[in-house]
Amino acid sequence: MARRKAGEDETPTLTREAVLRFVADNPGRASKREIAKAFGVKGDDRIALKHLLKELQEDGVISGDRRRFKTPGALPPVGVFEIRRRDEDGALVAEPVTWDRVEDGDPPSIPVRVDRAKGQAPGVGERILARVVEPDDENDATGERHLRIIRVLEKRRSLALGVFRAMPGGGGRVEPVERKQSEYMIPPGDTKDARDGDLVEVEAGPRRRIGLPTGTIVEVVGSLNSEKAISSIALHAHGIPHVFPKAVLEEAEKAGPAGMKDREDWRKLPLVTIDPADAKDHDDAVHAAPDEDPANPGGFVVTVAIADVSWYVRPGSKLDNEARLRGNSVYFPDRVVPMLPERISNDLCSLREGVERPALAVRLILGADGEKRRHTFHRVMMKSRAKLAYEQAQAAIDGATGDVDPAVVETVLKPLWEAYRLSRQARERRQPLDLDLPERRLKLDANGRVEKVVVPLRLDAHKLIEEFMILANVAAAESLEKQRQQLIYRAHDAPSLSKLEGLREFLKSLDISLAKAGSLRPSHFNQILERVKGGDNEQLVNEVVLRSQSQAVYTPDNLGHFGLNLARYAHFTSPIRRYADLIVHRALVTALGLGEGGLSKEDEELLAETSEEISRAERRAMAAERDTVDRLIAHHLAERVGESFDGRVAGVTKAGLFVQLPTYGADGFVPIATLGNEYFHYDEATHSLVGDRSGHGYRLGDTVEVRLVQALPLAGSLQFEMLSEPRALPRATGSFHKTQKRGRLKDRDRNVKAKVRRRR
After folding, report:
1. Looking at domain 641-747, which of 2.40.50.140, 3.40.50.150, 1.10.150.170, 3.30.420.40 is its CATH number?
2. Is the distance from CB of 230 to CB of 334 less than 8 angstroms?
3. Exposure of 559 by Cβ count < 10 A (0-12 exposed, 13-18 middle, 19+ buried)?
4. Residue 205: pLDDT band by 50, 70, 90 thresholds?
5. pTM of the predicted model, to two decimals?
6. What is the DSSP track for 443-469?
7. What EC designation does it have (predicted)?
8. pLDDT value of position 60
9. pLDDT value of position 251
10. CA dihedral for 267, 269, 270, 272, sign (positive or negative)
11. Cβ neighbours of residue 498 under 8 Å, at least 6 residues apart?
């Protein structure tokens, strides 16, 4: 063996134990070359090293090849990991992406330390570059192995969701739940014991030149034949947390009733809850009475009490971490995925009739003109006088005999309606955006199938609760601004210039003008909506105006609320189902000195990150809810392929038309290639497809008849054939002529290329 010069440290002796120690101490860089360099191996000694490494591999004490040896099961100090799941405490758990199951067995599952102060917000299915912190790390006091995130990488794109179909002899194939997704063949050893009809997550394998791509099943989600299977697809497709970790449930179960500390006693005030008939939790209660202050003749005192979730869900607790992760409750036709466990949402924080419950309340003083004069916030103990459904309350006000206590009608409901009459006058003066787009709801049978689609009646009872909640939300924002307390706003910016220009050009085709962007207010849109009300274009104009609006978001910056025409607006009234409201509650507790459970320093420092996370969670929930409705409707109509339906053009694109069936609220697609024997051009400004020769076509909002030619329940996809003939459309816009010219140029280019090919 080679030796160093006198005075230098001796080169370590090449022994079995020394090589094992070097491999263990240098995971990820213990190649044959590095080992030889460390032990001064040269010349003929390389043969001895080769035999030693081969012997260690055969004994199973090291694995790898000449480029990288390691101790079986060893991890590099820094590597790429994929977050696979959450443990019982709700912590994220990751596995190494590069792992040899044959040599090293199952990959280790390592908890992930998330530092939210650095804006880290990884989720299940995402990949991270992370440092492995060992239990004996002198710089870490946890005493357990974990991952410290260096950077969150892109979400794994090769993960797909589908339905496993078993094949004779083992293995199977996975049918996709998305139209653009591939079908996969699953080898017998990669099924993870999935059974026929199971909903599975599959990781794509290497592409093959011939046949379907192969894949490996990563997780079995459940049976497609089980109850709530359709919403399960959406939950997994969008990565929505839906199972509460054990530690979160245990923390919720340990919670007990709140006491009177730091609370006013409002138990004798006859507050009432007014909710949907099937509501399981009741997080808001209301009351109204004439104002006895002689300085406010004809005025009213309106009280809005909201469940005091901040008392139970404290910053940094497991309940808080889970609520922040979820961001909001998600509502499907067949189930609700709550933000908080039922012990909190349906029990301790549900304002049940006749039961003492803690609340955060705002007392609103309205003038005779309906304008809010002032307001005050209070932390109280209340007792709901009555639990009412919207229909119940409305019927009682309309004079129908029912099961509502006459005393409640006289002393609570009638004053509420009178206060609402006043506040409605103020609302009409304020002129918020007044779109008329009816909401459809699915009624399911006992098997979770669509029984019918209904359009709920829009009652004054709904509008009353909505208006008082808006007043309470405004009051919360005003109080926090006055106290110079940071908060999360619910912001809705004005429409962008590009969207307004598109809307302006569209309205011009209907001989309707739109004010300039700088002076545009919701009232200008309302004038347009009023002008088309009751006409053929009413639904069309409502749709286009809606599409021109910006998306509402959560933000620590006050951008105002364009749609409601309010200078400041926060969400305060639903902390059971929205994390933004919980933050506002904590901010009020802190700013007004109302006791425990206020906004923590970390909460304040992370308001921007929190706003972004919960805005993303809201968009995720909306997409999942929409996808579930589409799948349920497609499943409902799958047996009616070949039938014709009355529909309405709900979307126009270069590829074709989206047609909505008003009876079901479902959209289907009509490819442009199936529309007729002429070339159809897309006119973006008028939202129409126009025939090149005839000038006839189809436009957004048109009533049409279509035939259902395909229904894919798993993908939630419907395809139609157009039966209605195209109609004469108003004059074409500049964008149409440009598109038409481009189309003719493309036709000319195709003809020229065809002639060249023929000459060759």
Report:
1. 2.40.50.140
2. yes
3. middle
4. confident
5. 0.79
6. EE-TTS-EEEEE-----HHHHHHHHHH
7. 3.1.13.1
8. 60
9. 95
10. negative
11. none
